[in-house]
Amino acid sequence: MVTMSDVAREAGVSVMTVSNVLSDRRPVGAPTRARVLAAVEALGFEVNLTARHLRAGRTDTVALIVPSFHDYFGEVADEIAPLVEAEGRHLVLERTSANPEHEMESLSVARLQLYDGVLLSVAALDRDQLDRVRTPKPIVLLGEHEVPDRFDHIKLANEEGARLATSHMIEGGSRRILALGAAYESAHKMTTDRRVGWETAHREAGLPVDERYVVPVTTYSSQGAREALLDVVASGLPFDGVFAVTDVIALGAVAALAESGLRVPDDVQLAGFDNLDVSSFVPPGITSIDPNHRGVAQDAVRLLHRRMADAAAPAEHIVAPVRLVVRGSTRGGR
Amino acid sequence: MVTMSDVAREAGVSVMTVSNVLSDRRPVGAPTRARVLAAVEALGFEVNLTARHLRAGRTDTVALIVPSFHDYFGEVADEIAPLVEAEGRHLVLERTSANPEHEMESLSVARLQLYDGVLLSVAALDRDQLDRVRTPKPIVLLGEHEVPDRFDHIKLANEEGARLATSHMIEGGSRRILALGAAYESAHKMTTDRRVGWETAHREAGLPVDERYVVPVTTYSSQGAREALLDVVASGLPFDGVFAVTDVIALGAVAALAESGLRVPDDVQLAGFDNLDVSSFVPPGITSIDPNHRGVAQDAVRLLHRRMADAAAPAEHIVAPVRLVVRGSTRGGR
DNA sequence: CTGTTAGCGCTTTCAG
DNA sequence: CTGAAAGCGCTAACAG
């Protein structure tokens, strides 16, 4: 391995001068600089980032820690990456597998030390577990959980979004709207928040809230949603609308409705949440709640930068606004 | 910050003993061990991974470097993660933004030094650029490009997959099949390989190959595909089948066909490539070529482990087999 | 503008 | 089974 002292010897300067040329932290005379760069080139030197990190106490790297790499998180990550890079830092993704044990491990101070800042999308940790995370590292939490006040946090307007989607379907004539993937008690606070919004929409319209229309799913996948909805159809419970708590769930619903011979939106209106890319392409277009991924990404990075600049700043808690995007899966679109 | 020497002092042992307890590299007497662990607990010590990395020359971390975080790569990453973790290493994702400049930078030896091994999904680099990557780091290349022989490499059976999908639609009665997203000359070798498979299917069936049916897309997104296909419809070119070079492209085709009032598969058969989750849920189900993500992930991790164990092993070049998954978007399914 | 010194926190090596 | 010394490769701080 070629080290800085090899380069220094080759160029006839001190190690410090090589360091200064490469990091631009102090001015170096033009001729000296040229000799150093020539030596770097000749020897094929590349700085050892691990050594730099240890000495400088800085890695110029931000981690985004997510439950899984695909779907929602992949889309958000692609929004965050350019914002982090714009500040001259690298973004790396790690995943926790939505497994509380792994999630705690990802949060171990040891692992966090590798980064200058961390964006953590909490999936399975409750407030108490988060409270045990004691680190001076700048952390911004993303996600729908309740978190200790001392953390910066961004969540979506879950109730509001669910209410908007449900009201929209009520206005379109639906009277028996399933809340697919929603729950009364759940490790995922998001599913209960969105259930509440679904209830609120009913109350506002003077419609009764029937618990049988809250349909949980066993696995939060399209497949799980498909099976759950097919079970409802088989049970004979009449319905004319489906509010899916996420677009991934809505996708499973689309499949189940098609297989059951139910037409969207004629027989059943359908709305989702997250506004994934796919929702605008699946015919007839899935009405969804747009959480403004880009805006959330910007807020997240802004909070993290603020926190990295000032560890003592008061924690900020943002509820990101959402909006309804009407497509062909509900009446009133097109 | 609490360091090992703080712990050593607290426990009344040497720094070395603390290190041995924590890394399990040398046996430590039970009572000593207990004192050390108590001190670790009392002080809240966490090992400094950067220092460990520098000294040990090892990070126990593998990087998967991909063009973007979403869709295809996110799904593959979720398959790879558990395999890497099973060997006691961490997986991190970095992205190159499918931009040749960034891709070269991600490949800088400096950045690679941070990892014990790298899985690199080449998107925009040609063989010459890859040939300039000179590093002793274990690297396994993934993707459809041609790569220098000295690299381990896994690619899909692109021609074969395209041929299978196209032949299947020909058997189902299609005679005018668009190759949507395919190309004659392209930075993406994949798009030309799949075009060749489309041609082969025609030749085998004794059908003419009409260049007008090769429809490039400007951006490799569903939206780009949707627009390209709407343009074809508007042009009046008759067609009764669409081979989409990826499922993301196929999704855009589904939207465009629906908007044009063309029924799938009655008026137009449709097949994609990649077998993304979404393809099984979009009605009527998109016939696709399954690249066996899990198998590719296993091969990739196997090659990387072999390379990490033996830097001098001969490079292996794997063409991963694919299979046709028939769904409702083609006749002969269901 | 350039150099010298010291040391980041850990683990390898050698010694007991 | 435990310890002391040395140093991984780099940069902050201080000197000239």
TrEMBL record, chains A, B:
Keyword tags: DNA-binding, Transcription, Transcription regulation
Q: Which organism is it from?
A: Antribacter soli
Work out whether the entry's keyword set contains Lipid biosynthesis: no
Named from the GO MF annotations, one term is: DNA-binding transcription factor activity
* Signal sequence region: none
Its recorded name reads LacI family transcriptional regulator
Please state every residue range assigned to the domain named HTH lacI-type: 2-56
Per the record, a Pfam family?
Peripla_BP_3
Matching SUPFAM superfamilies, A to Z?
A: lambda repressor-like DNA-binding domains, Periplasmic binding protein-like I
InterPro entries annotated for this entry?
A: HTH_LacI, LacI/GalR-like_sensor, Lambda_DNA-bd_dom_sf, Peripla_BP_I
